[in-house]
Amino acid sequence: MFEFVNGFHDTANAVATVIYTHSLKPKVAVMWSGMMNFIGVLAGGISVAYGLVELLPADVLSPPNGDPAVPMLISLFGTALAWNLFTWWFGIPNSSSHCVIGALIGIAIGDAWLHTRSLGNSVDWTQVWKVLTTLAISPILGLVGAGVLYTLMKLFVKNPELYQPPQGEKPPHAFVRGLLILTCTGVSFSHGSNDGQKGIGLIMLTIIGILPATFALSPNAAPHIAQVAPQAVIAAPLIEKYDHDGLREEAVASVARLQNTDPAKVVPSQLRADIYEVIAGLKAVSVNPQTPAEDKKTAKSISNTLRPTVEYAPWWVRLLSALCLGVGTMIGYKRIVHTLGEKIGNTHLTPAQGASAELVGAGLIATAGYTGLPVSTTHIITAGIAGTMVGSGSGINPAMLTKIGLAWLFTLPVTITLGAVLFYVMSM
């Protein structure tokens, strides 16, 4: 359901220009965008998926008995869905990624309250800052990149149709129309490759949380399990010496169990939990300033060797994420399209502005999808359109800018607070 809402919330980023300029009929545009989202999910990887869910502490991410799963899942999806629908109802472009990330951080904070730990012991701040930095920088790149591209387009491409708002129901010239369909395709595909991975990660989080014995380990884990004990032997002294981040007790206990791993007697849920505790301990080793560079490199290598045992996505999970995102893309686009086309700037969106924002956005989103970093399609495209409005000299609509800015500003505090309170109350 969340991935479906993600699709119809974010679809306007891809189809706004082709619909607004009458390059494609709305039904054709959203069906085409939905299909490209579908293909993008299937073509993408899973690095973003697990980069996102690892914001959760190890005992919530992979509990051996699955006890925290239901509170965690209700807190996560209830929070993210509520804020997504709230902003969509008012026609405000907002980030589904921010909603999920805020809810995940909130759950980690709720887990710290539950176990009376300091926040540093439950929240992986290194991963949080890495994700939030990407989310903060990408809209700036979209704003500047789209503004520069629009300025260059005005200098070198003299077709007047590109720089005029749509006139009536008449579609633009074939060249302009083809350019806009191309940019729509690029944004839709790249959105699928990045946001689809988030859906994959969230579905995996759900099925592993509810059925840990069945889905805890990769179906191809057997050759990797044989590497667990030797890697644990190497990890043990590193964690003993350099993990001073409060995770030492859990990580040391887990690494001791992993050293005695017998592939013939593995309990999948316990092995998964121990691997994630050790990975958390190795992260603490990596960020410890006292750790020598060679030991940091070793810690990273051990983590990379352990991950394939527990990080995977069956084909049907990929297909389910792609299907939900693609179908959602075909619904609910009108509110956000109207905002992007007419309310971001003081003048209506022109084909050149839409194409510039979408070309830059597609590049940024696709790049992030293959580097394991989640970005917000909504923020990049909205910032890109704003950049082209500045580049054209028309300026930005201050009322809408304030409304969007407030939604962006409050997303993380609201979702963090709601996620933390829900998880804490339901887990007591």
UniProtKB/TrEMBL annotation:
Topology term for the membrane: Multi-pass membrane protein
Catalytic activity field: phosphate(in) + H(+)(in) = phosphate(out) + H(+)(out)
Keyword annotations of the record: Cell membrane, Membrane, Phosphate transport, Symport, Transmembrane, Transmembrane helix, Transport
TM stretches of this protein: 29-52, 72-92, 99-116, 128-153, 174-193, 199-217, 315-333, 406-426
GO biological process terms held by the UniProt record: phosphate ion transmembrane transport
Residue ranges of coiled coil: none
Protein name according to UniProt: Phosphate transporter
